[in-house]
Amino acid sequence: MGDAVTYSESSELRDIVKRVPLEAIVLENDSPYVIPEGIPGKRNTPLNIPYIAKVVADLKGIDIKKVERETTMNAKRLYGI
Questions:
Q1: Given this model, what pLDDT does residue 42 score?
Q2: HSE (CB half, 13 Å, CA atoms) of 4?
Q3: Nearest 5°: phi and psi at 54?
Q4: Beta carbons within 10 angstroms of residue 52's beta carbon
Q5: How far is CA 52 from CA 8, 24, 40, in A?
Q6: In this predicted structure, what is the pLDDT of residue 1?
Q7: Listed residue (31, 26, 22) closest to 78, CA to CA
Q8: How far, in Å, CA of 17 to CA of 4, rounded?
Q9: Using CA atoms, how far apart are residues 37 and 27, in angstroms rounded to an integer?
């Protein structure tokens, strides 16, 4: 999931996030260009990924710590770490 999911007008993407199992989600962002909604005027960096995690947690109705833990494990598995 990328920064676009943080934008309220991304309703289709947000609906997809609700349906996709957390085990299939990896967080990323489009540094340095697309920044999460709510922090305009700044350069995007990977430090903004917690904003994406918060939106995913809110959409799924789960704790952000679970999103952080699961998506980190997913990324490690994807990259063979």
A1: 76
A2: 10
A3: -65, -40
A4: 23
A5: 12, 15, 15
A6: 63
A7: 26
A8: 11
A9: 16
pLDDT at position 12? 95
- 1-15 pLDDT, tens digit per residue, is 687 888 889 999 999
Tokens of 59: 């959409």
Q: How many other β-carbons are positioned within 10 Å of the β-carbon of residue 36?
A: 23
CA dist 70 and 43 (Å) reads 27
Give residue for tokens 């998506």.
71
Q: Are 55 and 18 in contact (CB under 8 A)?
A: no
What does the alpha-carbon distance between residue 36 and residue 52 come to, in Å, rounded to a whole number? 7
User: Which residue, 77, 71, 37, is CA-closest to 57?
Assistant: 71
Residue 50's pLDDT is 93
